[in-house]
Design a protein that fits this description.
Largest sheet: 7 strands, mixed
Number of domains: 2
CATH topology of the largest domain: Aspartate Aminotransferase, domain 2
CATH superfamily of the largest domain: Type I PLP-dependent aspartate aminotransferase-like (Major domain)
Number of helices: 15
Low-confidence stretches: 1-18
Shape: globular
Number of strands: 12
Structural class: alpha/beta
Strand order of the largest sheet: 2-8-7-6-5-3-4
Helix content: 40-55%
Order of helices and strands: HEHHEHEHHEHEHEHHEEHHHEEHEEH
Mean pLDDT: 93
């Protein structure tokens, strides 16, 4: 595909220029020149009428990738998860999910506020997964005093940690025995797929519905796809409209998602390798506490020394490295951070820690 010179790709030096080495999240990635070219060339129509061919192609691509009948393109992971929950549950029914899972902890309570759905949080294991016994204990009896347990929501990855197919299937099996549906928040499912060497289809097989985010490690600017059975996705499309998410000539955005799925999946291994090298380098610094076991994909969790952590953050920021503020850090590697960027960050941390 020809490159559009009006949208130059970020070179290694540009990507690692001061202020552009941004470890806050993999949501900060920017479309490169080839993705912008795909946007410019996208064929569009009115998606509300089902007439946008690029949106339709993205939905078909995602459904096939995840082994589902149909899919719907949503503006965000929050909207996609909420559309799924509203499609599975009626008011007063219950969703069971892990403590700290995005659907309960980071989506503004939308399932309760907008859907009247009762949230139930249960413990998560070291890998971020749910123990079948905990799920069993959380499912409510047929008693008018209790909400009706309707949906189990899983999450993979969770805090950068991956769950195996067997782990997911064990949790889903409990739901099946009790007639509950299963949703999988797979915002970073492709990271799990690459880390495990397992197809996204196999990882999603346990769930009725599954989301994949296009605007995190995959590098698209906007959007999440929700996939599942055709009848559930039809309901979810209606819920998307209710939530204000129906778009018109959305093909210019969907083109980015298509490009991401076709070009940016395998390269996630580079982010994982950069994260491991970053974690290992930080672990060698005095007073730094690094959770090396949790560094399974693109995230590094670090605790800075108690006495001078604010000074360290100031020094690192002056070196052009952007991170979230606090003694406890989550550093996220992504396609806009090269191996050289990791070197710059490690050098800045080392200088700050030893000065």
């Amino acid at each position: 595909m020809a490159m559009n010179s009006a949208y130059p790709s970020a070179s290694a030096s540009q990507a690692n220029a001061p202020g552009l080495i941004d470890f806050r999240s993999d949501t900060v990635t920017r479309p490169d020149a080839a993705m912008r070219q795909a946007m410019m060339q996208a064929e569009v129509g009115d998606d509300v009428y089902g007439d946008d061919p690029t949106v339709n192609a993205l939905e078909a691509k995602a459904a096939g990738l995840l082994g589902k009948e149909a899919a719907v393109y949503c503006t965000s992971g929050t909207q996609a998860n909420l559309s799924a929950m509203l499609s599975h549950c009626q008011r007063g029914e219950e969703i069971i999910a892990g403590h700290g899972y995005h659907v309960l902890a980071a989506e503004a309570g939308g399932c309760a506020a907008l859907g009247g759905i009762v949230p139930c949080a249960i413990p998560t294991g070291a890998d971020g997964g749910l123990d079948p016994d905990d799920i069993e204990a959380a499912i409510k009896p047929d008693d008018p005093h209790c909400p009706i347990s309707r949906l189990i929501s899983l999450e993979n990855t969770m805090g950068g940690r991956v769950q195996s197919v067997a782990r997911l299937e064990a949790a889903a099996a409990v739901a099946r025995r009790h007639g509950l549906s299963v949703h999988l928040d797979g915002a970073r499912l492709m990271n799990a797929s690459v880390a495990l060497g397992v197809s996204a289809k196999d990882l999603a097989a346990c769930a009725d519905t599954v989301t994949i985010c296009l605007s995190k490690g995959l590098g698209a600017p906007v959007g999440t796809v929700l996939a599942g059975p055709a009848d559930v996705i039809a309901r979810a499309r209606r819920q998307r409209k209710l939530l204000g998410g129906a778009m018109r000539q959305a093909g210019v955005l969907a083109a980015c998602g298509l490009y991401a799925l076709e070009h940016n999946v395998e390269r996630l291994a580079e982010d994982h390798a950069n994260a491991r090298r970053l974690a290992q380098g930080l672990a060698e610094l005095p007073g730094f506490e690094i959770d090396l076991e949790s560094c399974q994909t693109n995230m590094v969790f670090a605790r800075l020394p108690s006495g001078n952590w604010e000074t360290i953050l100031d020094h690192v920021g002056e070196a052009g490295v952007t991170i979230s503020h606090g003694r406890n850090l989550r550093l996220v590697c992504h396609k806009d951070i090269t191996s050289d960027g990791v070197d710059i960050a490690l050098q800045a941390f080392q200088q700050a820690a030893t000065s």
